[in-house]
Amino acid sequence: MAKLEHGSDDREDVELEAFRRLYPSEFLQQFLKEGVRPDGRPLGRARSTVLSVGSLPHAEGSAMVKLGNTTMLAGVKLEVMPSPVDSPDEGRIAVEFQMPAICSPLVRPGRQSELEPVIAEQIKNALTSTMMVDLRELIIAPGKAAWMAYLDVYCLDADGSLLDAALLAAAAALADVKLPEIAITDDGKVFPANVVTEKAQTLKGKRLKLGKIPMALTCALHPKHILPDPTAEEEGILKTTITVLTDFSGQLVSLYKPGGEVLASTSIVQSCIALAKYRGKELQKIFTEAIMKADSDDTMDAD
Amino acid sequence: MKPQSSWAFNIDGAALFYAFSQQLLITFNFVENTIILAAVYGPKAISGRKENPECAIVEVIWKPKTGIAGSNEREAEFIVKRTLEHIILTAMHPNTAISVIIQVVNDDGGALACAMNAACAALVDAGVPLSGLIAAVTCAVDKEGMVFLDPMKKEEKDFRGHACLVFPGRPLAATSAASLAIDNEPIEHGIVSSVTKGALSADDYLNCLERGRAASAKIAEFARSSLERAQRGVEMVVAS
């Protein structure tokens, strides 16, 4: 008897999976009607977010984000460069976003995903608009040498809301950066502090002073509902997303809507901004806790 | 708003070009302007994995004035593609590709909005079935929160940020407009695409939306009348 029941369960699973694949929008519709999402969360809730800072030993700053299944790894590598000619009192940050083929069935090996430049540009825009890192912080000696920070974000699993996770990882990695201790000579040559040279002036290592910290919330638009933090499945079915970029205080930075089937009215825009403000408070807590934890680990290691 | 002009010309019968320029008239002369050339090829046959049995795929290639395309241009391609997919009836030509080539002739600010207007006009001229027209507009906000339409490149550094907004054109339909409303707003007030650069507060953005909608009505009207004029020109040539 039990065996028979088990068999019918299996058939139901197969039928459910078939329904999901053959009629994706009806499948989603059935859930939304009941006020839940296919992964079981309520309509207006983002997925659980885990942020760990300082996981890469060879990067000057690093962070790993898990937003549901979406996984992002960000690292900052510093290099000394001669001061840029057009802005002698500033350093540089180069942002790179990579989606290797292992992250999603939609990305093919050896081909660049069309999302890579889009997300890299959005991260760049968010960092410069909020002035999260004052580029003058990256100066070693004005007109002589400055830090070039390579910020690389890797997507390890693309399950929707990529920009949200990528931006959180990027911001946390930058917050984790500690400029190393160095020695600089009068003619602008830079050495590690442990290399003893004559006439070299030693600069203490320090953390970067941070301005406002940007965050993003992607919302998928259904004709009747707004679904924050969509999974890849929901993004694929609904085809319309709005990404609201704010800082942690809830100040709007940018609003990104790349086409899609549903038009956004003023009230939808306002609800998305309100959702982003709420999410900003959640993320701020996660962010500060992760940074504090990394700091206390550092001091423990030093002891 | 800068005075605008657009013209169509036909090369080789198959390739249809459309140029859309936004020109600034300062008392004496045409000074600076943004000129974008958009060409549409297709629907044409494609093979390989790109092919979709349910709808035509849209591909956009953005050619900068000089040099090779970087990530900035790739992002522009993505947004233009997603915007055009909103109006192209892709289900009518399955297993084909529609390619849109955007050539920047001169960029003096607002190139993205100009490119979308040009691409929309080129699609009409190429006879690709569309669900409607779009009107794109660039709004900039200065440090006092004033909204400026269609900023020039040299003004851009004085602004806190700018937004490129795309709205649907007002449909000319026999049905009443009220049935097309979304959230008690007329359909031409809905946002198809929105890209912002720099920091805009929520109030700034809503101001931009309001000003952008007013300007987009003008652009939509202009685009429609110039398309009609171009169409009449073609008919006259065919008749004679």
Overall radius of gyration of chain B: 18 Å
Structural class by SSE content of chain A: alpha+beta
| Amino-to-carboxy terminus distance of chain A | 64 Å
Structural class of chain B: alpha+beta
The CATH first-level class of chain B comes to: Alpha Beta
* Strand line-up in the sheet with most strands of chain B: 1-2-3-5-4
Shape of chain B: globular
Strand content of chain B: 25-35%
Strand tally of chain B: 9
**Mean pLDDT score of chain A, rounded?**
88
At the fourth CATH level, what is the homologous superfamily of chain B? GHMP Kinase, N-terminal domain
Order of helices and strands of chain B: EEEEHEHEEEEH
Number of helices of chain A: 6
Number of helices, counting only DSSP H or I runs of 4 residues or more of chain B: 3
The biggest beta sheet of chain A reads: 6 strands, mixed
User: Biggest interface, which chains?
Assistant: A-B, 33 and 41 residues
**pLDDT under 50 segments of chain B (min length 5)?**
8-19, 21-31
How would you describe the overall organization of this protein?
The complex is a heterodimer of chains A (303) and B (240). Chain A is of the alpha+beta class. Helix content of chain A is 35%, strand content 28%. Chain A is built from 6 helices and 15 strands. Chain A has helices at 2-22, 24-33, 115-130, 162-176, 232-238, 266-302; strands at residues 49-53, 61-67, 70-82, 92-98, 139-141, 145-157, 178-179, 182-184, 190-192, 201-203, 206-207, 214-221, 226-228, 241-247, 252-256. In chain A, a hairpin with a 4-residue loop joins strand 14 (241-247) and strand 15 (252-256). In chain A, helix 1 (2-22) crosses helix 2, helix 3 crosses helix 4 (162-176) and helix 4 (162-176) packs parallel to helix 6 (266-302). The N and C termini of chain A lie far apart (64 Å). Chain B has 240 residues and is α+β, with helices and mostly antiparallel strands. Chain B has a single domain (4-239), classed as GHMP Kinase, N-terminal domain (Ribosomal Protein S5, domain 2, 2-Layer Sandwich), CATH 3.30.230. Chain B contains 3 helices and 9 strands; from the N terminus they run ββββαβαββββα. Chain B has a 5-stranded mixed beta sheet with strand order 1-2-3-5-4. Chain B has a 4-stranded antiparallel beta sheet with strand order 7-6-8-9, with helices on both faces. The relative contact order of chain B is 0.15. The model of chain B is unreliable at 8-19 and 21-31 (pLDDT under 50). Chain A binds chain B through residues 108, 114-118, 120-122, 125, 129-130, 242, 251-261, 263-270, 273, and chain B through 49, 70-72, 74-75, 77-79, 81-86, 161, 163, 166, 168, 182-183, 185, 187, 189-202, 204-206, 209.
